[in-house]
Every structure is written in C-alpha cells, then in structure tokens.
Amino acid sequence: MKNLKKLGIITGLSLTLVACGGGDSEESDGERDSDGDVNISEEVEYTITGIEPGAGMTQQTNQLLEEYDNLAGWNHQESSTAAMLIALDDAIEKEEEIIVTGWIPHYKFAKYDLKFIEEPKEIYGGEEYITTIVRKGLKNDLPEAYEILDNIYWEPEDMGSVMLAAQDKSIEDAAQDWVNENQDTVDGWLEGIDAVDGQEIELVYTPWDSERSSAHVARLALEQKGFEVSMTQVDPQIIFQAIASGDADASLVPWMPVTHGEFYKNYEGEFEDLGPNLEGARVGLVVPSYMDIESVEELEPAE
C-alpha cells in the first residue's frame, strides 16, 4: 500500500460557506433594469460561486473572467464542492439568483431544475469523457486489477443514481446498493478474470461526488475478486502526480479533454491511460431554470 501522506496531499472538504448574491429579500424584490426586468448581474453581486481552488474547472472559470469583456470586475468565489452546493440549495429555497460552476453527472440535476448557460468561446469545452489512468507497471504487477479497471464503463445515469442516493445515506452504502441492483453490469467487468488472495491496490480520487461514486463502485468490483482496496482523497492536480510517481495505483477521475487537460499534459507519458469509463460529461456555468438567462454574454460588467 502506498503512503500518500508523505506527499502531504491528502485533502478534506472545506465546509466554509460562500456568500451568494440576492441581498436581503425582505428589503427588496430585486434590482431591476430600465425595462423592469431583474438585473441578474447585480442580483448575484457580480459573483460566480465556485469549488476547490485546485480543480480544473476553477482554472477555466478564472480564464473565463479574463476572456469575456462583459465580465470585467466579476469575482470568482473559490470554496469547495460542499460549500457551493450549500449556497445553491439556499438560493433555490429562497428563489434567488445564483450562478455556480457545475457539472454533469451530478445529483443536483436530479434534485433541482437546473440548466447550463451557453458560453460561446467554449472555455469549458464541449462534451467530455472521464478516463481511467494507472501507474506504469500495473499490468505486470496486478494483471487482474488492470483488466478490471480497463473493463469498468458505465453511463452518466448510473453515476447520477449513486450520487443522488448518497444524499440520504453514506457513499459506501449508496455504491453497494447500486452494485447489488446492477450486478449483471459488474459481472461483465469481472468476466473471465481470476480471483486473487488479498493483493493490495490503492485508488486515488477527488472530493467531487461523481468521483467518490466511481471510486467506491470500482472498489466493490475489485473486492469481489479478492483485492484489498485502499482509497485516498486528494486535490485534482495531485491525481496525476500520484499515479505518475507510483505512489498510487489507479484513478477513475480525469475529465478530458478540457477539465483536467493541463494536468494530463504535465504528466503525459508517465502513466497509462486505459480509456473512458464514462462518456457524456459536461462542465460549465449552471443556474436554476427559473433564471431568465441563456448565455454568459447577457451578463454585465461590474461597476
């Protein structure tokens, strides 16, 4: 079992709350422009509510503010996935305006009525896929694990169902329930692979609920063939460092080609890419569907 603690890279979720726009609803029904419509830019206080500073999406959002002249003076509130979701939930409960960085698959799209707003310059890219990477030498050292990891593939709806279930129970229980209900799919990943006797393997994953879901489902699949699986949560930029250096064995995390593209390039050739474990992913700016906005170009610069 690898010791990632020596790198000082284990991370936890910050539960620091972020401020979301909207002001005091008891004092005002919202700032309105000359046509009487709500001024969304003022309502959100010229702020995009983001997630972890190390996430690829965070870097893209910072670039977004530089690329669009109409976003001059805007603030990107970096926080954590948990804090972003708290802010989103609070805004929706009060029917207030909020703009967050978001992605699919994610349970929030099943829990709330949300939409992406268009971003013509495609800073966030288009449709993405999530790939599996492993350390060099894994195929020789743990051929059965290598084959299982190479076989794992599921749909956004599968991942989303685990994420949604995990809102009412532990991620471990949600993943186990999904495996119990989809054993035929798991059997396809494991078909023809010999069982082992307690061989150790370490997976690394990020704080995103999507990657927590895939990591725990992969763990259960590997355990069905006798592997002893340990898992370590790290910041996104560390995933590639850990796999490239051999301090971890595998990860089902990288969103490609854009979200984690820069991290991937930094270590390309120092790990093995097994290909997509999920296709049809997307990242970008997300708002509640009741907000009257369709494009980032409709936003106004801060005064």
Automatic annotation (TrEMBL):
GO MF entries: amine transmembrane transporter activity; carnitine transmembrane transporter activity
Top-level taxonomic group: Bacteria
Ranges for domain ABC-type glycine betaine transport system substrate-binding: 40-181, 200-300
UniProt keyword Cell division, yes or no: no
Keywords carried by this UniProt record: Cell membrane, Membrane, Transport
First-listed, main subcellular location of the protein, grouped into a coarse class: membrane
Subcellular location per the Swiss-Prot or TrEMBL entry: Cell membrane
GO biological process: choline transport; glycine betaine transport
InterPro entries, per database record: ABC_Gly_betaine_transp_sub-bd
Any single Gene Ontology cellular-component annotation: ATP-binding cassette (ABC) transporter complex
PANTHER family per record: GLYCINE BETAINE/PROLINE BETAINE TRANSPORT SYSTEM PERMEASE PROTEIN PROW (PTHR47737), GLYCINE BETAINE_PROLINE BETAINE TRANSPORT SYSTEM PERMEASE PROTEIN PROW (PTHR47737:SF1)
Protein name in UniProt: Glycine/betaine ABC transporter
